[in-house]
Write a structure and sequence with these properties.
Chain A has 281 residues and is mainly α. Helix content of chain A is 73%, strand content 0%. In chain A, helix 4 packs parallel to helix 7 and helix 8 runs antiparallel to helix 10. Helices cover 38% and strands 26% of the residues of chain B. The chains are: A mainly alpha (281), B alpha/beta (256), C alpha/beta (263).
Amino acid sequence: MAASTWHRLRHDGAARGAAFVLGAVAAAALLAPWLSPFDPTAQPDPVALRLLSPSWAHLFGTDPFSRDVLSRVLHGARVSLGVAAGAMLLSVTLGAALGALAAVVGGWVDAAIGGLVDVLIAMPRLLVVIALVATFGTLSPWWLVALIGGSGWLTTARIVRAEFRDHLQREYVLAARALGATRWRIVWRHLLPAVAPQVAVAAALAFAAVIPLEAALSFVGLGIQPPLPSWGNILLDGTDYLTTAWWLVLAPVAAVSGTVGAALVLADRLRAAIADEEREA
Amino acid sequence: MTPLLELRDLVVAYRSAAGVTHAVDQVSLDVARGETLALVGESGSGKTSLGRAVLRLVPTTSGTVRFDGSDVLALREDALRAFRRRAQVVFQDPNASLDPRMRVGDIVREGIEIHALASPEQAELRVARLLEEVGLTPSDASRHPHEFSGGERQRIAIARALAVEPEFLVLDEAVSALDLLVRAQVLDLLARLQAARGLTYLFIAHDLAVVERIATRVAVMHQGRVVECAPTAELFRAPQAPVTQALLAAIPRIDW
Amino acid sequence: MTPLLSVEALRVDVARGAGVRILEDVSFSLSSGEAVGVLGASGSGKTTLALAMLGLLPPTLVARGSVHFEGHEVLSASRGARRAVRGRRCSIVFQEPLTALNPRMRVVDQVAEVALAHGERDGRRARDAAVQMMERVGLANAAAQAARLPHELSGGERQRVLLAMALLLEPALLIADEPTSALDVTVQAQVLQVLRAQQRERGMSLLMVSHDLGVLAVLCSRVLVLHEGRLVEDAPTRQLLETPAHPFTRAIVAAVRRMERPA
């Protein structure tokens, strides 16, 4: 019996674990002001309290300015996850819309969108974003969302276009056309639900790609600017003391790899669920 | 009386890398109100393209399609939608023709929604009645297509087509994928519906054996053309075209 | 004389589905040279039955009982023993000729592979035999078609390639699972003719699975009726058509009669 992709995913242990990790990270980000033991920007005593190793008072130690690393990583999650989620939403929505438009309208619209994808896909994304940031100087998180999201829609557009074109040939879409359904009704009622699992895979992968991208930008000093903490700039602060105060990078590295790992596991299990469903159909 | 459907010199050509293929080549046919015209041919004979062209589901190259006197190929927007209410289709493979993500009730209701034929409460009642009419139960509305057997799925597809109260149905190999016994049951259902609703059928099949009981007349297609068209009994008694003779000879006849 | 194939109390269950039984207590036998039909609707277990004869059941299914082919037990046989039988003494053809072929391999190589897998060393000789067999099963222009890939052939041609694979080593038993239901009727008639010729000329046995009584009646002298996993009837074709015993068989015979006799 062919249960739906979503149903399969809900009963997949690994997927549930990954979803739990992502949920926990998101909850930590949302509740950061209440969960954090200290003010993330407060520098209580840059001399006596600097570079303390992990203890019960400071679970992940303190940084060179005597700030509590745990509090900074929790607050950093708000920025890093916010940028990642925003960029992911933007790129997936943009990609789905343009891919759908290309497949449904066809003709010159399809050719134009296809051409744009071909041009943009040839550009190395990180370098383009770095170049743009360097040109416009430092950026607010909103601009970062726009930049990363605006450059990340290509894969989703390709997937949605290919899937739409496949489904447009199927008889259930033909039957809907024969009933007199408009193109947009077909897109909304039949095609989008059909590609939703694939888009979710693309979204999870986009999310997994944006977290390190934001971290990388902040790491080279072009992303989120201090004193606002992000996982990238916390990591940047920590690398100077890698040999003397290794705990500084422990929390941000764990946060980045845990989140990215969970998103990748989720994408992988989702793909497996789609494949299972197609095989049984 | 004028026929319900008139085809004149209909051509459906596809362009591909290999050149232009004439799937349907200069076909002229009439289908009278209330009759069943069977369109029989082997795969690649153009019968499916013809059925789809009649419903404007594939573009036609030239020729005319008249439905109840009006030129189907010239219909725009609203007029085309009005035509779609009157002419419906049932495909061969109910696995492919039913959206697997929708509930049966939503699938059957779609046409009612598109043409705003009833209020939501009335629509629910109509869906229940339609399901009963095709031999299912109203409670099946909340289930998904994969929970049904092949024959039941084909009944769902028939209910969906009937929901807009059409006069004309294209049955595109509608029973070909079904087991023999189920096939007989669905053919019975189609005959009953035709009698009760005064439907006109264009019944497409690759097998003459299937159409013997249900068809008023049979048109045999080969390489895009209609090579023979005759009343069913006559065609089975004295087939004229070699293709018809071959199709008849190929039926595995039981020597009773 | 012992029968070529004998099945006793065969039961097949879904391995992890508690109590989901696909075949229940199926017993029958088939003599050398005999053509037997298995009539059943979709979901009756007829494909499972066909697969069990060769020990080809997927690991999700568990078979109990016994299947003896040429005196050897199939269900408990070692993998090597089963492989030695498959393709050489007993072959199978399926309904869907496209998915049963490797899309990236020339059809002649796929047919020849059967001989190579069973000890033929000379690739050229295997390919020659393959082309010859493709001719014998009626593949028009076999020498030229041989070099093609499966998707370059029509459905009927692909089914003939599969038949050539199945018949290459002249097996004693051919199991055919709805071998013609995806084909045009005229091609179906030709394929049925090939099967009949193989059976008559070589004395090959045939176990043909189908939902179509007409097809079975053309080829088989005896028909087994499978209904919801049980063998409900086993009778000579003539007798089955004239006096069907089980209600399911009666319904099918009545449907066929009615279909052939317009009101």
